[in-house]
Amino acid sequence: MRTLRIAVAVLLSLLLNFGSEAVAQINHECSLAGTYRINSADSDQLYSAVENAVSGVPFGEQQRFFFDLSIRLTPPDMLAFDCSGRRVSVASSRAPKITFLADGKTRNERKAGGGSIQSRVELAKDTLTFTSSGKTDDRVNVIFQSLENGRRVRVTRSIYTDQLAGPVVIRTLYDKIAEWVQWDIYDNDDLAARQPKRQIPTIGGSYKPATAENRSGSNNAAALRSALGEWVAATNNRDIDGQMMFYMPQLEAFYLTRNSPRSAVRREKNQSFARADSIDIRAKDPEIVFQESGATAVMRFRKEYKITAGKRIRGGVVIQELRWRRTNNGWRIFSERDIRVIR
């Protein structure tokens, strides 16, 4: 488990925790260059892939493996690439730009606590490959491959470890949304607010300014994370009015019920608040996948909860799913359920 965490941490530090510039013109000799948005419909489903991979792990370790892999392998909503010779710059909606040398040479990197990790980054005409290895029983491989004459990018991530029967392989498809590189896709509201309006050519040939309302999933993801924080705060404060403002008039699913009106959800939550002396709910950074061209979003996150009622304390950890719909008044929940009980 430890070697898995180390290797994935190196991978994310190099390729996701990518300083920032607003917009840069691409190098047309680099087929990967451009700005991309995730296509969740054509991508592997993260939770299904992880669940299948950990099924052979001893039962006592499955929960930890499932959560560990799910968090670390959550793909960013957007990617941006540019390259000049062997120098490659990469950014994502989860982290700012970083530039590295993709010359195919193996480099040793010291890790905290001693020991070393070997890493190699190689750039071919339409493929960028990252390989990392520590101990011989642990390898990480990531391939960025340009498809359809540069209109899409497929990201294939593979993790190998002796504790798993085979590698965990996740394939994620991204569609190009701009021929120019937009470096300010990093999920940062302050940065976005400071950027001037700029014309960014889209694939269809039309032009749209890179303002907050029509920048893609990056700002939508920020708005959803903010809404989640307010929803959790309202729950912990037992503020029924504050919490209910985040719900649609009708919920397709509310735990074990279907097609529940908001009034029924309010009634059940009110009863739960009334019975509790204190509520402490904590949500980890969520996985967000946009659907229906960004009109809806599936959010999954690890939720830790502790509810005190007199001398009775009830608590646990679950993977919770909230489904959101974008409305004129902001994002609203139309489905709420737990998809996995961890403890």
Characterise the protein shown here:
There is one protein chain. The chain is of the alpha+beta class. It has 7 helices and 21 strands. The chain has helices at residues 2-15, 46-54, 59-72, 189-194, 217-236, 240-244, 262-275; strands spanning 23-24, 34-39, 78-84, 87-92, 95-101, 103-110, 116-123, 127-133, 138-147, 152-161, 168-178, 181-182, 199-201, 207-209, 250-254, 257-261, 278-283, 287-291, 296-309, 312-327, 330-341. The strands form 4 sheets. A 10-stranded antiparallel β-sheet has the order 5-4-3-2-11-10-9-8-7-6. Strands 15, 16, 17, 18, 19, 20 and 21 form a 7-stranded mixed β-sheet that branches. A two-stranded antiparallel ribbon has the order 1-12. Mean pLDDT is 75; it is low at 1-28 and 187-216.
Order of helices and strands: HEEHHEEEEEEEEEEHEEHHEEHEEEEE
Class derived from helix and strand content: alpha+beta
Percentage of residues in helical conformation: 10-25%
Taken from the alpha-carbon principal axes, the silhouette is globular
User: Largest beta sheet: what is the strand line-up?
Assistant: 5-4-3-2-11-10-9-8-7-6
How large, in whole angstroms, is the Cα Rg?
22 Å
Strand content: 35-45%
- Secondary structure: number of strands: 21
Q: Sheet bearing the most strands, described?
A: 10 strands, antiparallel
Mean pLDDT: 75
The number of helical elements comes to 7
Q: How many angstroms does the end-to-end distance come to?
A: 19 Å
Uncertain runs are 1-28, 187-216
